[in-house]
Amino acid sequence: MEHKEDKLKEVISHAKEYGFVFPSSEIYDGLAATYDYGQLGSELKNNIKSYWWKSMVQMHENIVGIDSAIFMHPTTWKASGHVDAFNDPLIDNKDSKKRYRADVLIEEFIEKIRMKIEKEVEKGIKKFGDDFDETQFRATHPNVLRNKEKIKEIEDRMRETLGKNDLEGVYNLIVDLEIVCPISGTKNWTEVRQFNLMFSTELGSVAGDASTIYLRPETAQGIFVNFLNVQKSGRMKIPFGIAQIGKAFRNEIVARQFIFRMREFEQMEMQFFVRPGEEMKWYEYWKEARGKWHKALGLGDQNYRFHDHIKLAHYANAAADIEFNFPMGFKELEGIHSRTDFDLKQHEQFSGKKLQYFDPELNQNYVPFVVETSVGLDRMFLAVLSASHKNEVLEDGSERTVLSLPPALAPYKVAIMPLTKKDGLPEKAREIIDQLKFDFLCQYDEKDSIGKRYRRQDAIGTPFSVTVDHQTLEDNTVTIRDRDTMEQIRVNVADLFSIIDQKVNMRKLLV
Ligand code: ATP
Q1: pLDDT by residue (tens digit) across 269-294?
Q2: Other CB atoms closer than 10 Å to residue 326's CB: what's the count?
Q3: Which residues line ligand 1 (CB under 6 A)?
Q4: What's the CATH number of domain 49-72+211-390, 3.40.50.2300, 3.30.930.10, 3.30.43.10, 3.90.79.10?
Q5: pTM of the predicted model, to two decimals?
Q6: Which of 84, 142, 165, 231 is deepest in the core (most CB within 10 A)?
Q7: How many angstroms separate the alpha carbon of residue 397 from the centre of ligand 1?
Q8: What atom in ligand 1 is closest to the CA of residue 261?
Q9: pLDDT tens by residue, 136-153
């Protein structure tokens, strides 16, 4: 099996070579944890956005979308708790001079124990073959039980210390677990400190505290402050949702791993407003719905898992992550949070304005509870790209690199290729593009041999390649090649639309 780090490197260089993702301001050697999306990357990104937006707004009568400003009144962030509590506990290794998030170090330690359990189970499978009873094994094997107990102990201490903001306790936990720095291999740690993740800047020309504003660290607050505007102008009835896609900024301490953790990134968030007391029902509903949304892409069900939060954010009463099997292992892709009435109540208090809903069925005013789904667009992009990137050895021994992107997300849907550059074939190819371009992003390609052109389309994930040859001029038929099966069939030009549409239409993902 390919080494995981190599896999990530391969994906990064593929993304650059074909115009998906470039390091930001690369001619100046780049800017840490900032990336630009290229000509194909922005297409893929737009298609992911569109899949999300349609599934939320178009498929739900009771969800509408907005686009709020990145800058917000500074009191917003006082009210939301971000000024005082949007911190990460950080710790430095004195030998490597590397900085880590203390909670991440501990979570990675737990993950290692978890891997030990999985190894033990694998050994069991090998040893007992068909007679193996996995449930029984997991419930009784002494090594598994010991490790499970260990995980529970660590998680309890982590919850306890982080929950109380007991930084010394977090430090002690790291020391007691004998966690070493992955770079230096030593246990020479600094104390644990808190670090606020918000970027700030000055509004206008006046300096000083009063004019400090922040780049939003999440899009959600733009939804909360507009809750009544949308509810009233849209005559929304609870339960209803407000969706938004937009940039967010966080001064991440450890910004590594390509577009997985960036300082400027994009979120797709939906806040679902519900009756107090009904939040757990909706929390479960959205957990399931979001799981389905991801799995419909066909990247492999085994690549997803749910992880319930140990460390709850300051606003949540329940939270779970949908984790994806990235090249670096299972990591958070999306968060589903039951945020209670925390945010709206805080905004009521800080603004002095009522943010309540009159429920005609209950004949009563209340501050709604909120269930949020929040997925990183860039992380979705990385999930899709890395799971689709494959090196295949073909039957004839040759190799190809293919991006088996979900067809609905692929940048180009079809490439049209004249077999030669003469005899009117290019003109015929362009004529076909002129018919298809209203519905699909098409690429025209006449350079190099057909084989090479196919490889190029495979590498950028184009689901179909259509070749125009001399016979086309006679009977209006072309060959259409399928990216995944590499099969070619001869079809009438008039049938191209429906063949392509059937495969690439987003409808299939949405039902
Ligand atoms: P993490 O624990 O990885 O820092 P988080 O729990 O702080 O993430 P949330 O505040 O729940 O993340 O944000 C919601 C989603 O936004 C995340 O699931 C993730 O997909 C995305 N996201 C958060 N921070 C970043 C980042 N720095 N770069 C890219 N995407 C991010």
Answers
A1: 999 999 999 999 999 999 999 999 99
A2: 23
A3: 250, 252, 261-262, 265, 267, 332-335, 374-376, 378-379
A4: 3.30.930.10
A5: 0.86
A6: 231
A7: 42
A8: 28
A9: 999 999 999 999 999 999
